[in-house]
Amino acid sequence: MRPLAICIAPVICTLSVMLYHSYPVTAIKEVLPTNSSININTLNFKKNRKGKSIILVASHRTGSSFTGELLNANHDILYLFEPLRYIEGNANKFNQMSNIFHCQFTKSYINTIRDRQGVLRFSQGLRNIFKPRNKFKTPSPIDLSRMCNTYPHIAMKVIRLESLQQLEPLVLGDKLDLKILHLIRDPRGVASSEMNILKTISNNSVMWKLKSLDPITKNYCQRAVNMLDFSYNLPASLQGRYKLIRYEDIAIDTFNSTIGIYNFLELPLHQSVSNWIVENTKASNSSGFMITNKNSTAASESWRTRLQFEDVEIIQNLSPCDELMNIMGYHKLESLSQMNNMSLRSF
Ligand SMILES: *[C@@H]1O[C@H](CO)[C@@H](O)[C@H](O)[C@H]1NC(C)=O
Ligand SMILES: *[C@@H]1O[C@H](CO)[C@@H](O)[C@H](O)[C@H]1NC(C)=O
Ligand SMILES: *[C@@H]1O[C@H](CO)[C@@H](O)[C@H](O)[C@H]1NC(C)=O
Ligand SMILES: *[C@@H]1O[C@H](CO)[C@@H](O)[C@H](O)[C@H]1NC(C)=O
Ligand SMILES: *[C@@H]1O[C@H](CO)[C@@H](O)[C@H](O)[C@H]1NC(C)=O
Ligand SMILES: *[C@@H]1O[C@H](CO)[C@@H](O)[C@H](O)[C@H]1NC(C)=O
């Protein structure tokens, strides 16, 4: 069932979106803790925010932190790093996205940021308003709202979205000028990166075996394939609002990919973004991002030197990762010598 594209009256609109998503959009707002100190009436609430609402949809270990920085480096964009973290349930997740795109912040989200200041590293806007813990007062929802309203555009990275369909009410109900960037990475790269993390947190050699990552990798591929399927038949409301990006393309030519992204966003590419790219894609820069234009091998194809060929074969034949690779133009490697032959491109 498709929602009505035209909302004759709010109640009909709500109903059609509800039928589609099986939860009512107006009721979603009420999922907010009644305790929350947000009083919507007192906020400078722009019902029809003019700016862009940008959502970077990604998965764990897909290079989304790096990609997000391409938005964060733009001083016209308030960029938030994984605001859906620690939020359970689709209705609550939707509510969080909707609120943030309207510059409304719950106390619980603010407390999460306060308690896990790691996210501040990735968000210029938040870093400016959050002060070192215990030394200063935690900002209030109103403080954040004011800060947020000084930005023309809002962007967030989410790695915990179940489906793109969930974003539709942001356009139908909230009337936001939504832009969706869907980031995909080669599942072999994702698995290799996951394995690296496991190695650093566990000395259990059993854990190091890629086999234990099969369900995670499979899950990643399934979600990506589902989203791609949805993207082939986008509902009218999302048409022109969706762009698929490959991490490998960003790694091999960050500047060109960024031009493509900003064209899609219909925003100018600021000098600050170009500067960030220049600084952070230097082979010498140890900013923490494993990426360099000078050696794309070291960046996006490091899995070729890290994984065993048997592991690569397993992933290539794991359904639906085989399908994902096919759709995305990731080439299968047929032998160890092919894997080691770096002049043979894998994407
Ligand atoms: C507010 O939250 C506190 C605990 O966080 C709870 O005990 C209290 O009942 C809540 N009040 C309302 C009005 O929901
Ligand atoms: C990790 O495991 C290896 C091999 O079993 C062992 O030699 C090493 O001492 C262990 N390291 C730590 C920090 O436990
Ligand atoms: C630059 O990016 C566009 C897509 O945004 C792509 O079509 C084109 O091939 C890229 N050019 C180079 C030289 O990579
Ligand atoms: C690396 O990048 C960071 C962040 O952009 C920048 O502050 C730093 O100066 C760069 N370092 C070098 C050596 O270019
Ligand atoms: C690129 O990085 C890979 C892996 O670290 C290395 O083997 C290779 O020699 C590098 N290539 C160049 C041209 O630096
Ligand atoms: C590596 O791949 C290239 C491109 O397919 C090929 O021309 C070359 O012969 C290969 N080298 C080896 C050692 O297999």
Automatic annotation (TrEMBL):
In terms of InterPro entries, this protein maps to:
Gal/GlcNAc/GalNAc_ST, P-loop_NTPase, Sulfotransferase_dom
Work out whether the entry's keyword set contains Signal. yes
Ranges for the Sulfotransferase domain? 53-318
Xref: Gene3D superfamilies: P-loop containing nucleotide triphosphate hydrolases
Where would one find the signal peptide in this protein?
1-27
This protein's UniProt keywords: Signal
Protein origin, superkingdom? Eukaryota
Q: What is this protein called?
A: Carbohydrate sulfotransferase 1-like
Could you tell me which species this protein originates from? Saccoglossus kowalevskii
Q: Which gene encodes it?
A: LOC102809528
